[in-house]
Amino acid sequence: xxxxxxxxxxxxxxxxxxxxxxxxxxxxxxxxxxxxxxxxxxxxxxxxxxxxxxxxxxxxxxxxxxxxxxxxxxxxxxxxxxxxxxxxxxxxxxxxxxxxxxxxxxxxxxxxxxxxxxxxxxxxxxxxxxxxxxxxxxxxxxxxxxxxxxxxxxxxxxxxxxxxxxxxxxxxxxxxxxxxxxxxxxxxxxxxxxxxxxxxxxxxxxxxxxxxxxxxxxxxxxxxxxxxxxxxxxxxxxxxxx
Length: 242
Fold this sequence. Notes:
- The protein has three helices and 19 strands.
- It has helices at residues 12-21, 178-181, 205-210, and strands at 2-3, 24-27, 33-34, 45-49, 55-56, 69-71, 77-78, 91-93, 99-100, 113-115, 121-122, 135-138, 143-144, 157-160, 167-168, 197-200, 221-223, 228-229, 232-233.
- The strands form five sheets. An eight-stranded parallel β-sheet has the order 1-3-5-7-9-11-13-15, with no helix packed on it.
């Protein structure tokens, strides 16, 4: 069954009805998919719990400006703008998600923590304008589309753990990622530091440096073994190489 927030949309009136009546925490343990625009602009919605949902439709939670907690443990696909402009969202955890649709988290300006252990594809503009995002760990990703991280001004660490070389759709995927580009910006990188790095398995560093589109960022690649936070190695690494 599909959830349309208890209403079948026939026009703007029914949509406004949902916006007015859905607030606080919303739980549903029966539906298996969430329809397009189901909770669009429900600005009083703070938490959602859908333990059986596997698919989230286009713009399903778009502009839910107070949404801070999402529980979708079985979701495997998010679609166009599923969580766009959820401006209060600080972290996401999707343990079963494999396909992150285009603009899924576009303009989630407070998003700081991302846990996507099995995602293999990052769609266009998926994290665009996530201006608070500093580090993203993507264990299984093998495909990053155009503009995926554009305007992620504070991004300093992108970790790609897959032993398969990730395809980068376009060099613009990191447009205005000032720390990876080493671009001076008065607000986000006043010194023009080129201190943003892309961490990959050590055996693939040279392959990434020469790969199509990735070669633009050749100087910013580092081996996974070099990734530390406050001197602590992150992730399950080969201790013989540390």
